[in-house]
Structure formats: C-alpha cells, structure tokens
Amino acid sequence: MAATDPDCLFCKIVAGEIPSTVVASDEQTVTFMDINPATRGHALVVPRTHAADVLAIDPDDLAAVARAGRQQARRVMERLGADGVNLLNSCGADAWQTVFHFHLHVIPRYRDDPLRLPWDPAPGDPEEIAGAAGQLRGEA
Ligand code: AMP
Ligand code: ZN
C-alpha cells in the first residue's frame, strides 16, 4: 500500500490539500477537529501514512496514534474542562466507518451531554457467550 491514496479525504487533509483545523501533529500523526462534532472539542487522530482501518494499519503507526490520542484526551480534560472522554474507532461500513483512512475519534464527554451508549447492556446467554469465546480461541 502506498503511503498516500490520491482518492483519500484524510490523505488530502494530511497533505494540506484540503483545509482542516489541526490541533497537534508529530512525525507519524495529525490530530484535527471533526467537522461534525458529537460534542464540543471532538477531534480525530490519523496516521500520516494511509491505511484503511485497524486491520491494515502498521502496528507502529497504531502505537503512535494511541499515544497522540492519549495526549489529546489529556488536552480535552485539562483545557476544555471535559468530565470524561471516549476514544472510538470504527472498522468497516457495518461498524459505522465512513472514511476509509484509519482514525481514532477523541470525543470529550460532559456530565450532561446528550450522548448515550449505542446498545442496551443486558445479561447474555452464558452458553452463547462461551460458544463465541470458543470460536475466538479457534476451537471447532
Ligand atoms: P467514521 O464514521 O468513524 O469513519 O468517521 C469519519 C469522521 O470524519 C466523521 O465523524 C466525520 O464528521 C469526519 N469528517 C468527514 N469529513 C471531514 C473533514 N473534511 N474534516 C474533518 N472531519 C471530517
Ligand atoms: Zn488516506
């Protein structure tokens, strides 16, 4: 995979060909504001090198994004007065991914903000849970 995909929106943002509001950057990553913020201060951390998703990204770039994401999490707590923060990644269209250049959402959370868990936590069937675990361990 080439370092840059000419058809990729976030590659264009990294290259400065499309405007963005950058908060921080380093050798491997750029952190910029999301144009459709879920809450005040919502930002995205991306690797400079193109990779479609978490399955494709170079592990060293993934580590760099994790480091930059934690720095951004600290910033939103300390500078925006957030009460908490969600780090979110979507992999695949069925998992809500819409831009296919890996990105970590850093979403500041405020005590009374409107965001809610996208699932209703409820006890699962123990056999079904164990069955999934067995498949994940590679049994049968
Ligand atoms: P996802 O749905 O996880 O792939 O997230 C893609 C995110 O990129 C969404 O939250 C969009 O609001 C955001 N986004 C799309 N275009 C831009 C842009 N030009 N600048 C900043 N954020 C963008
Ligand atoms: Zn890209």
UniProtKB/TrEMBL annotation:
InterPro entries hit by this protein: HINT (IPR039384), Histidine_triad_HIT (IPR001310), HIT-like (IPR011146), HIT-like_sf (IPR036265)
Active site location: H103 (tele-amp-histidine intermediate)
Region (Disordered): 119-140
Motif, Histidine triad motif: chain positions: 101-105
Cross-referenced Pfam families: HIT
Highest taxon in the source lineage: Bacteria
Gene3D superfamilies in alphabetical order: HIT-like
Every HIT domain range: 9-116
GO molecular function, one term: catalytic activity
GO BP term, pick one: nucleotide metabolic process
Organism in which the protein naturally occurs: Baekduia soli
Protein name, entry field: HIT family protein
